[in-house]
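Customer escalation, tier 2.

The customer says the design service returned an amino acid string that "doesn't look like it belongs to this structure." They asked us to rerun it and document both sides in this ticket. The original structure tokens are below, unchanged.
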């Protein structure tokens, strides 16, 4: 559940079709709505530790999106006045879109669901702006600010520059009001830290800060995100997830990223997504033996779930967005896979070698080495132990090269690749 910065890389290579649905504009009439008849001391307290939302997070990081969203919906149904439920599911939908590189035009139903829940998060929080209790007002400003921030990021990804600017401006305003009401509202520093960091580090076209014509502060941004991770009530895991993305993609701090990832894996030991991220980090670190074992375990888990189609992209590339397919990474992947083929794990799962050949074929195709890619796809086709899903993908790529644009388009379409 993250405000991922890696998805923004999709802007560099993915034009948005004119027919992409507009997720709409929010109105300010919600502040005039009456307060709920019964007000708790804290809405956040009902969310932290909730069993349904905990199951939702576990499903999300296992890439079981429908299950996770259903769990979050069940919380909302039982807590209709709580704006945190709407923010929670909005974050889940955003994480799904960012991990799968989906724009509004690619999955209109996802876009409309995100629009509805992020709108409701703002509506339910704005009516609490006039609550007498400072804690409730701070929570309301936090939820509104984070919801506008999510919407602004969605706009950026879909190249709706003016609307991204307007949502981003509102996000920062509400988050600042939150910490004015309660300077120790640590969760709010996640959104403020993201704004600070992105505005200082990312290229102008990729950040809301550039649209707002303000400068960020890298060090302060990192410190604020860590503050939310270490002291926050609601957003601790979300802050950790976002910090992990920063350490991997921007800071290139492999040691810090791996340490943080292993802490996250303690909370989500069954997550095939985090298992794939750790395997990739081990490969990048040069620990070939550990990386081979980790990737073999990930492959076995995907094979057991028959989930190569539904989870393959997110496991291999979800943490890197389309930067996963740049020539430099493809070249590194080829070299690593050759070593993995030469040094298999002690008891490789059936089809393991074909999985390596398939990924190497995709890497070769991504740098336009069609002849070498065909050799790998032929190896998959000839392996009786290769799972049918791998054979089908290999056959499709033998007929038509799986260059990066095609791989991304196939994942976005949710269609199985056919010749």
């Amino acid at each position: 559940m993250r405000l991922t910065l890696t998805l923004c890389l999709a802007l560099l290579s993915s034009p948005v079709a004119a027919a992409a649905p507009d997720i709409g504009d929010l109105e300010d009439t919600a502040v005039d709505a009456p307060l709920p008849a019964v007000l708790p001391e804290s809405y956040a307290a009902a969310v932290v530790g909730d069993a349904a939302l905990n199951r939702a997070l576990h499903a999300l990081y296992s890439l079981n999106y429908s299950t996770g969203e259903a769990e979050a919906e069940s919380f909302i149904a039982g807590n209709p006045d709580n704006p945190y439920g709407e923010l929670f599911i909005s974050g889940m939908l955003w994480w799904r879109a960012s991990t799968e590189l989906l724009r509004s035009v690619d999955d209109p139903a996802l876009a409309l669901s995100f629009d509805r829940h992020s709108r409701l998060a703002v509506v339910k929080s704005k009516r609490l702006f006039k609550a007498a209790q400072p804690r409730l007002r701070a929570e309301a400003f936090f939820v509104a600010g984070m919801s506008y921030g999510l919407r602004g990021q969605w706009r950026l990804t879909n190249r709706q520059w003016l609307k991204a600017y307007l949502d981003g401006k509102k996000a920062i305003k509400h988050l600042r009001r939150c910490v004015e009401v309660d300077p120790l509202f640590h969760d709010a520093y996640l959104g403020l830290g993201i704004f600070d960091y992105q505005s200082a580090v990312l290229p102008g076209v990729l950040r809301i800060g550039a649209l707002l014509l303000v400068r960020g502060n890298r060090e302060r941004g990192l410190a604020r995100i860590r503050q939310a991770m270490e002291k926050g009530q609601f957003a601790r895991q979300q802050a950790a997830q976002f910090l992990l993305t920063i350490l991997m993609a921007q800071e290139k701090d492999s040691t810090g990223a791996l340490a943080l990832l292993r802490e996250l894996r303690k909370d989500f030991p069954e997550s095939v997504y985090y298992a794939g991220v750790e395997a990739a980090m081990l490969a990048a670190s040069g620990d070939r033996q550990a990386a081979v074992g980790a990737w073999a375990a990930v492959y076995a888990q995907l094979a057991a779930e028959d989930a190569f189609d539904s989870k393959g992209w997110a496991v291999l590339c979800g943490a890197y967005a389309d930067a996963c397919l740049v020539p430099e990474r493809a070249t590194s992947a080829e070299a690593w896979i050759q070593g993995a083929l030469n040094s298999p794990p002690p008891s490789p799962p059936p089809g393991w070698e074909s999985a390596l050949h398939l990924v190497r074929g995709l890497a070769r195709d991504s740098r336009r080495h069609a002849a070498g890619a065909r050799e790998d796809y032929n190896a998959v086709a000839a392996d009786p132990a290769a799972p049918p899903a791998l054979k089908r993908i290999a056959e499709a790529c033998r007929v038509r090269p799986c260059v990066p644009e095609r791989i991304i388009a196939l994942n976005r379409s949710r269609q199985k690749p056919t010749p």
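Tier 2 assessment: The sequence is consistent with the input. Residues 272-413 form one domain. The longest helix spans residues 134-157. Sent an explanation to the customer and offered a walkthrough call.
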